[in-house]
Amino acid sequence: MTLPTSLGELRKSEFNEQRLKTRRVKDELRDNLIQKLRTGETIFSGIVGYDDSVVPQLINAVLSRHNFILLGLRGQAKSRMLRALTGLLDPYLPYVMDCEIHDDPYDPLCRRCNNLIAEKGEATPIAYLTPAQRYVEKLATPDVTVADLIGDIDPIKAARGGLDLASELTVHYGLLPRANRGIFAINELPDLAGKIQVALFNIMQEGDVQIKGYPVRLNLDVALVFSANPEDYTARGKIVTPLKDRIGSEIRTHYAGTLDEGVAITQQEAWTERHGHPLYVPQYIREIVEQIAFAAREDKRVDKRSGVSQRLPISTMENVISNAERRALRNRESTVVPRVSDIYGAMPAMTGKLELEYEGELRGADTVVRDLIRLGVARTFDTYFKDGNMQQIIQWFDLGGQLKFSDTAPSAELMDGLKHIQGLSEKLSAVGVKPKDKAEIVVSGAEFLLEGLYAHKRIGRSEERVFMAPEKQRQVEKAPSHEEFPVRNRRPYN
Questions:
Q1: pLDDT score of 22
Q2: Is it the case that residue 484 has pLDDT exceeding 60?
Q3: Residue 291, SS3?
Q4: What is the DSSP track for 71-104?
Q5: What domains does the chain contain, in order, with CATH numbers?
């Protein structure tokens, strides 16, 4: 379709028919949403776990033509959902070319566009906005001013144009007017100073703004949406009561409700498609990574008010794969297959994402994360081996067997050690490992089984990742280091 390039062509096109509906942006969102509901199209793609909770409430808000706010802890896809609203906008929106506030050619607001149309008439040039260009987002910070949001006098513009400061043409428009005929989103609303929040009253109630120093009123056409963390109300700021009263709908977000939803989100968001070795990520590795996040949200040592972001399992999965990728490159293995030891190697991706309570601070982030990994392994182990008899494997360690499972060791080398553990290969069928599978896959499954037994304290493991009998581990832990020997037993310096 060829788009009209002048006001005269626009009047004769299909956009003229749309204009007869006199749709404002909230009506446009509502009409396109109704069409999607009737045809059964996906409304918000890439949003997992909200189908029966957040999405219906958000649909109700759009159908009601409300300004709304998403309340939730960090990492709950609030910004993603706000950005997804652009999918409800028309593919193209005509406006007067070069207008700072994207004026409607049929009903211009600014003085510049009124003068231009009066001068050129049907030859007035027309441009078009895409849905992405009609979405304006601002992260609220304490230093945001009214001029940033609404606008102010621009003396430089007046001087360059030889204009009087009282002229409407000297106005420098803020973010809100520049979002005219689109969606304006403010993230972390409580961080916005109270007096700045007050500046939003007019646009939300009366639908207009007043530029500082001018009697001009702009009847803007904007859908206002916000996001906030409920804990910010007391931690950093609050939403002033009159502003909350003007927000039509308050929608609460949440973390993934089930393990499968969490795995699906991480699989969707994590960067796993590497351009290099073939990659195979066992399902139990994905589940362990997700269980860590679930366990952290329940742990008393982790601050629940801050929350545990979904970014934790996403970043962890990326780091796990990178650790496995590094091993495969160094050992020249054909396939990258993550192991449980790679999850321990991904601890730097977890420690920075946990806000610890006093007890957790005393223990240290590394200790807390190790405990969470061990708990995640134990829970996942129970889903795969809950009916399995592991006595034969445990007995092999009790009789003195030991096996070192370094995260850098080649899979072929570890396979030689695994062959001596009686009954191990038969148990690996529970995680989908077959005897003829590649060594990398077999080794990963075997380490998961042994880590699960260690997590349940049925076998021991040293810090050097040597699996052994529990009694042997206790002896190793009690053995004094050279620092613990008396000074008299040390050889004096010359």
A1: 64
A2: no
A3: helix
A4: E--TTSSHHHHHHHGGGGS-S-EEEETT-TT---
A5: 7-252 (3.40.50.300), 259-478 (no CATH)
